[in-house]
């Protein structure tokens, strides 16, 4: 799965629940909130005042690191 700005929070967490740790480190502590599941990564970042490109880079870095193991 390729995670983009348009990927919903629900899709990401269904793909790999460990992404929640990255999101929480960025300041998104409402990962389990039912309304967040349908939001895109971009929408969630906007609500939390985060730079979507930085969060996306962290997620992609995690995915690359995971592949190397």
TrEMBL record:
Residues 3-54 form the DUF1858 domain. Pfam families: DUF1858 (PF08984). PANTHER family: BSL7085 PROTEIN, DUF1858 DOMAIN-CONTAINING PROTEIN. This is DUF1858 domain-containing protein. It comes from Blautia luti.
């Amino acid at each position: 799965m390729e995670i983009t700005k348009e990927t919903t929070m629900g899709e990401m967490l269904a793909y790999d629940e460990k992404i929640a740790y990255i999101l929480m480190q960025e300041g998104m502590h409402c990962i389990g909130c039912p309304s967040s599941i349908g939001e895109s990564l971009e929408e969630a970042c906007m609500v939390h005042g985060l730079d979507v490109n930085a969060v996306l880079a962290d997620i992609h870095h995690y995915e690359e690191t995971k592949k190397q193991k």
